[in-house]
């Protein structure tokens, strides 16, 4: 594995742990795809730093267990915003 890939994997792992970040947030922060973030965390980091990989796995598992809640809240906010706009137009 190339050195820059190993360095990127460690940097991404530290970001996820420090910020409890999701894969999507991390991908946006580093300017890479969600697939690359996932591949770095699940496959590559295990070979570079198994202890760090275990810590990241815990954060990712928590995020996965909560994603349906975050998705539901985002949808709720979306429709509340639309409702507020529609009620202003009626006035």
Topology of helices and strands:
Blueprint: H1 3-19, H2 23-30, H3 34-48, H4 50-90
Quick tags:
mainly alpha, about 90 residues
Descriptive notes:
- There is one protein chain.
- With 91 residues, this protein is mainly alpha-helical.
- It contains four helices and no strands.
- It is elongated.
- It starts with a helix and ends with a helix.
- The mean pLDDT is 91.
Quick recap:
With 91 residues, this protein is an all-alpha fold.
Distance between the termini: 62 Å
Q: Work out the number of β strands.
A: 0
Helical fraction: over 70%
Quote the average pLDDT.
91
Uncertain segments of ≥5 residues (pLDDT<50)?
none
Tally the helices: what do you get?
4
Structural class of the secondary structure composition?
Answer: mainly alpha
Largest sheet: none
Radius of gyration: 18 Å
Report the β-strand fraction as a percent range. under 5%
